[in-house]
Amino acid sequence: MEYSHSDTDLIKQPIGYWSWAAYKAVIARTRAALAGIGTTQPQWWVLAQVASADNVKTRDEVSRLLRNYLDVGPETMESEIDTIIAQGWITEDAEGRLGLTAEGRAFYDKAAALQDELWAERHAGISDEEYLTTLKVLQRFIHNTGGRAWHH
């Protein structure tokens, strides 16, 4: 890969810009790929939570967990849950428990395969060690600036 600046110049570059640029590029690519198979990123998050849960989760549990991802608010999460129920990918019982339908499992498997492809694309030429170092450095930036971040 050809870098945009020499190491001497790059060391002086602002982390705010480069972390923002990385965020924008990754999110745009992910959302476009998911749209290509007929879903949104928040819908994928819900499907992943329901499909991979060891214990059945309620709508409220899923919504509370995901509404802080990438500044998605509670109204958006509720709407996205309603949409995937209407699509027949998940069900909701009288107590609010969410379950995956057979159609939802098939779509989840398709979306999970796409996510695996996107992961490989993003990580091309990046070792696990480099990735781990990058995440730890970003966590230190967040900590050093008084920010908070959490991902499940």
Tell me what you see in this structure.
With 152 residues, the protein is mainly α. It has a domain of 80 residues: Winged helix-like DNA-binding domain superfamily/Winged helix DNA-binding domain (Arc Repressor Mutant, subunit A, Orthogonal Bundle). 63% of the residues lie in helices and 4% in strands. A two-stranded antiparallel sheet has the order 1-2. Strand 1 and strand 2 form a beta hairpin.
How would you sum up this structure in a few lines?
The chain has 152 residues and is mainly alpha-helical.
Classify the secondary structure makeup into a structural class: mainly alpha
Order of H and E elements? HHHHHEEHH
**Tally the helices: what do you get?**
7
- The CATH homologous superfamily name of the domain at 38-117 equals Winged helix-like DNA-binding domain superfamily/Winged helix DNA-binding domain
Rounded to an integer, what's the Rg over CA atoms? 18 Å
CATH architecture of the domain at 38-117: Orthogonal Bundle
Strands ordered across the widest β-sheet: 1-2
Strand content: under 5%
SS elements, strand count: 2
Distance between the termini: 31 Å
The percentage helix is 55-70%
The rough form would be described as elongated
Q: Which CATH top level class of the domain at 38-117 fits?
A: Mainly Alpha
Largest sheet: 2 strands, antiparallel
SSE blueprint:
Elements: H1 7-10, H2 15-36, H3 41-51, H4 59-66, H5 74-86, E1 90-92, E2 98-100, H6 102-122, H7 128-144
Antiparallel strand pairs: 1-2
Key phrases:
single chain, 152 residues, mainly alpha, Arc Repressor Mutant, subunit A, two-stranded antiparallel sheet, 2 strands
